[in-house]
């Protein structure tokens, strides 16, 4: 009579499966906290005409301390046209999305618009600026 050497164990050992689940849980918890689409905390002005834009090419933010950020990189007022121009150099009709805290003076918003107009004059293009708002609750 022929006997098999390896006995098949009908019991299922779930310890390795639980290890995998915990590793995946830790991985997703870490990656979800690292990804932050809008890292600069702003209180946006409210608007009743909520329109969404399909695609913006550059995001400029102004926080409550009147500090400018281009794509979440702190930028001085003098460097705004250079940074925006570099990001829009290969775009014909680009869109600059402006996130401005509601306590920011209008002059700082106009500074961003002037920077985009300067880029348009230098590159001969027609980029536009839109102001991001928060929906009225």
Outline the fold blueprint.
Layout: H1 15-34, E1 46-47, E2 58-62, E3 68-70, E4 73-75, H2 80-87, E5 95-100, H3 106-123, E6 128-131, E7 134-135
Helix pairs in contact: 2-3
Overall pLDDT level: 80
Number of strands: 7
Radius of gyration: 26 Å
Helix/strand structural class: alpha/beta
The N- and C-terminal alpha carbons lie at a distance of: 81 Å
Main sheet: strand order: 4-3-2-5-6
What is the oligomeric state here? single chain
Share of helix, binned = 25-40%
Main pleated-sheet profile: 5 strands, mixed
Task: Count helical runs.
Answer: 3
The dominant shape is elongated
* Low-pLDDT segments: none
Strand content: 15-25%
Along the chain, the helix and strand elements come as HEEEEHEHEE
How would you summarize what this structure contains?
With 137 residues, the chain is of the alpha/beta class.
Task: Describe it.
The strands form two sheets. A five-stranded mixed sheet has the order 4-3-2-5-6, with helices on one face. Strands 1-7 form a two-stranded parallel ribbon. The protein is built from three helices and seven strands; from the N terminus they run αββββαβαββ. By secondary structure, the chain is an alpha/beta fold. It has helices at residues 15-34, 80-87, 106-123; strands at residues 46-47, 58-62, 68-70, 73-75, 95-100, 128-131, 134-135. A hairpin with a 2-residue loop joins strand 3 (68-70) and strand 4. The protein has a domain at 46-135. The model has no long low-confidence stretch (mean pLDDT 80). Helices cover 34% and strands 18% of the residues.
């Amino acid at each position: 009579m022929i006997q098999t050497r390896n006995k098949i164990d009908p019991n299922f050992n779930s310890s390795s499966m639980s290890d995998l689940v915990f590793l995946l849980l830790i991985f997703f918890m870490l990656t979800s906290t690292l990804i932050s689409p809008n890292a600069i905390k702003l209180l946006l002005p409210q608007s009743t005409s909520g329109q969404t834009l399909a695609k913006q090419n550059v995001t400029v933010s102004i926080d409550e301390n009147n500090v400018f950020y281009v794509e979440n990189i702190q930028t001085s007022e003098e460097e705004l046209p250079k940074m925006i121009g570099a990001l829009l150099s290969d775009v014909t009709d680009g869109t600059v999305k402006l996130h401005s805290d509601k306590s920011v003076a209008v002059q700082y918003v106009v500074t961003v618009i002037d920077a985009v107009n300067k880029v348009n004059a230098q590159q001969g293009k027609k980029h536009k600026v839109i102001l991001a708002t928060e929906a009225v609750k």
